[in-house]
Specification:
Order of helices and strands: HEEEEEEEEEEEE
Strand content: over 45%
Oligomer: single chain
Number of helices: 1
Helix content: 10-25%
Structural class: alpha+beta
Length: about 150
C-alpha cells in the first residue's frame, strides 16, 4: 500500500512538473507591451483653503449652521496638494490629519477632488477663475456643506 501511495504521489508530482513546463513553454512567447498611459494634465499648484461657513444636515432634522468642520473649529484651514493627492489639516491635538484624494477631475476651470476618510466621503470643488471653494462631507447620518476661499500656495 505504501509503495502504491509513493508511486501515486510521484506520478502526481511528475505530471504537475510536466504540465508546468508545458505551460511555461506556451506562455513564454513575448507579450505585447502595455499601452502607454494617457498624458497627465498639469496639476494645479497646491491650494491653501480657509473654510469659513458650514451647514450641518441630519435626517429627520432641519439643516443648521455649524461652528465646526468635524473636530476643526471654523474658520478651518485646509491644504489641498493635487500632485501628492492629499488634503491636510492640523487636528485639535496639533498633529497633521491627512486624507488621500482618491479621485481628481477637472472640467474647464473647475477642479473636483474626492476621497473617503473613515466612514465619511468628502468632495471639494474649486476653480482657477476665482477664489471660491465648496467642501461637502457625508456619512450615513449627516451631510456637512462648507464654503470658503482658496489661494495658490506660493
Amino acid at each position: 500500500m505504501r509503495n502504491l501511495l509513493k508511486f501515486t504521489f510521484a506520478a502526481v508530482v511528475a505530471a504537475a512538473a510536466l504540465s508546468g513546463q508545458a505551460f511555461a513553454q506556451e506562455t513564454a512567447a513575448p507579450a505585447e507591451p502595455p499601452p502607454a498611459p494617457p498624458a497627465i494634465p498639469t496639476m494645479p499648484a497646491p491650494y491653501d483653503c480657509t473654510l469659513t461657513e458650514a451647514v450641518l444636515c441630519k435626517a429627520g432634522a432641519t439643516c443648521t449652521p455649524a461652528k465646526t468642520l468635524g473636530e476643526l473649529p471654523l474658520p478651518a484651514r485646509v491644504l489641498v496638494h493635487f500632485e501628492n493627492e492629499i488634503i491636510a489639516t492640523v487636528g485639535p491635538n496639533g498633529l497633521p490629519h491627512i486624507s488621500k484624494i482618491a479621485d481628481l477631475s477637472s472640467s474647464g476651470d473647475i477642479v473636483v477632488a474626492q476621497g473617503v476618510d473613515g466612514g465619511t466621503g468628502w468632495m471639494l470643488h474649486a476653480t482657477s477663475n476665482d477664489d471660491e471653494v465648496t467642501f461637502v462631507a457625508a456619512s450615513d447620518d449627516f451631510i456637512l456643506n462648507a464654503f470658503g476661499t482658496c489661494k495658490p500656495v506660493e
